[in-house]
């Protein structure tokens, strides 16, 4: 039994469940300010305390989970949806002009961190969760393209691919029917890791004001709002920080567990 996989899946499930519950119920309305109860420590009425506007921090974290998970999930979907076909095409045409163009374009994107891409996008279109998704998604494309190409190249010389060629199948059909199923495990593991990095990136972008905009709650902006109040209201920074930490930890543990599950050699080596 893989302990990392179970622990990681458990931690991740807690925040996914909190995000799903927030669609139908939260302890208090996150758009409702209550100045009379601002910066209150944890209590029976507010288990995690209140912020500088009197909003319930537990409710903010639940709705913020929805924002972070949605941004990271869609961004990973963009990265996979565009990066995987590009990686398959590059591997099928190894050494050709298409392979060279795809790889050099990947190098170009890698030269710009997601934060810099977000700054460029928001300078033109304005700050929003959608633009954060686009920025993180663009940065994910070369990650999946490189991984897919690397995994596919090791398969193109295998006997089952040579048999498919002899049977008259073209490169595109071989890539979809034979190569893609054999690199799916790699993509699942990398997708889990990129999901955790997407949550971190969303928090970072929101922290500097480039992510989800008010009144939509965001873990990163909650940290930004608390930075001048840590000395007398540490709970404002502690709980959203823990939410980010535990979610990312859970996803990384789950990715580590999936890697062991898909490659028993790694699991035996660690024992």
Short description:
With 271 residues, this protein is an all-alpha fold. The protein contains ten helices and no strands.
What does the model show?
The chain is mostly helical. 72% of the residues lie in helices and 0% in strands. Helix 1 packs across helix 2 and helix 1 packs across helix 9 (235-262). It is elongated.
Describe the secondary-structure layout.
Elements: H1 3-21, H2 57-92, H3 97-110, H4 114-125, H5 129-153, H6 159-166, H7 171-207, H8 219-226, H9 235-262, H10 264-270
Helix pairs in contact: 1-2, 1-9, 2-3, 2-5, 2-7, 2-9, 3-5, 4-5, 5-7, 6-7, 7-8, 7-9, 8-9, 9-10
Largest sheet: none
Question: How far do the termini sit from each other?
Answer: 12 Å
Report strand %: under 5%
Please tell me the overall pLDDT: 90
CATH topology: MetI-like fold
- Please give the CATH class: Mainly Alpha
Calculate Rg over CA atoms. Answer: 22 Å
| Secondary-structure element order, N to C | HHHHHHHHHH
Q: What is the count of β-strands? A: 0
Shape: elongated
So, the CATH homologous superfamily? MetI-like
Oligomer type: single chain
CATH architecture heading: Orthogonal Bundle
Measured as a percent range, the helix fraction is over 70%
Number of helices: 10
Identify low-pLDDT runs: none
Helix-and-strand structural type: mainly alpha
| Whole-number count of domains | 1
